[in-house]
Recover the amino acids of this structure.
């Protein structure tokens, strides 16, 4: 019999402003980063108001991390300083490994109703991979497997393997699981998990119960260790992101868009930004 994970903490996403003035809700990124290891940040940028997001995220650097951007509505145009360009729309995924360093920009635009909905997750890189070459993967909605169960539960497999079906995002260094799960009302759902892994749910529609705790929109749930999570719906369905990964268990030195293992490495990165030697490759790998 599975040992169900208990709730370690429930966090309500907090409003913040990033980029050139994008209003968003941050679910991971304010607290001690070690408790979410290997994840560093989760931003929820859902808005129906164009002014909240249209200024976007102009040119900025990254080093030492991987980012996974998942769009539900609207589109995001991406470009970087080594030649990559693209746009991701509703249901699409873009995964970027910043690795040794890259400058890029992300400029959101809403749909015909002005809605821009999406999430960005940051996964840390272990020390041995911090300075790897930058690389990209982009996947459209049709590339993402959707599993429909007999009880009406729907699971979109972004990364990891669910019921023998593997999602398209396969090369993230920390090998996370990343699912978009919809559970109809009046159902019980059990999600198996790997012992020792960090497991997080982020609710973005509806409500449900975990043990006796009610969870709802913009609640992030961090679980204690165990072999499975049980979640129950009553009068309403629920939709949430499920993220899990094995902790890296290394020191984290983080300032702004750069995440390294030591303060000395951070100083080197920012010195290189000033000197113009930050970017180490001329072209990022992409599929």
């Amino acid at each position: 019999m599975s040992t169900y994970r208990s709730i370690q903490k429930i966090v309500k996403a907090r409003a913040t402003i990033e980029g050139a003035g994008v209003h968003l809700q941050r679910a991971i990124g304010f607290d001690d980063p070690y408790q979410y290891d290997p994840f560093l940040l989760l931003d929820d940028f859902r808005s129906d108001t164009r002014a909240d997001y249209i200024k976007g995220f102009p040119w900025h650097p990254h080093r030492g991390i991987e980012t996974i951007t998942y769009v539900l509505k609207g589109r995001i145009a991406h470009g970087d300083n080594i030649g990559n360009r693209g746009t991701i729309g509703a249901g699409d995924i873009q995964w970027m490994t910043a690795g040794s360093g890259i400058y890029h920009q992300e400029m959101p635009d809403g749909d015909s109703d002005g809605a821009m909905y999406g999430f960005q997750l940051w996964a840390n890189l272990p020390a041995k991979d911090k300075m790897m070459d930058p690389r990209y993967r982009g996947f459209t909605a049709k590339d993402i497997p959707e599993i429909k169960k007999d009880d009406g539960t729907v699971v979109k497999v972004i990364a990891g393997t669910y019921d023998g079906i593997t999602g398209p995002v396969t090369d993230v260094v920390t090998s996370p699981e990343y699912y978009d799960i919809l559970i109809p009302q009046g159902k019980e759902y059990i999600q198996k998990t790997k012992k020792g892994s960090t497991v997080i749910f982020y609710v973005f529609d509806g409500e449900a119960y975990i043990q006796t705790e009610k969870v709802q929109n913009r609640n992030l749930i961090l679980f204690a260790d165990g072999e499975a999570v049980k979640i129950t719906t009553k009068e309403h369905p629920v939709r949430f992101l499920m993220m899990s990964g094995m902790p890296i268990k290394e020191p984290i030195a983080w300032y702004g868009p750069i995440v390294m293992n030591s303060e000395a490495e951070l100083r080197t990165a920012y010195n290189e930004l000033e000197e113009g030697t930050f970017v180490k490759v001329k072209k990022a790998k992409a599929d």
User: Anything to note?
Assistant: The chain is about 5% helix and 50% strand.
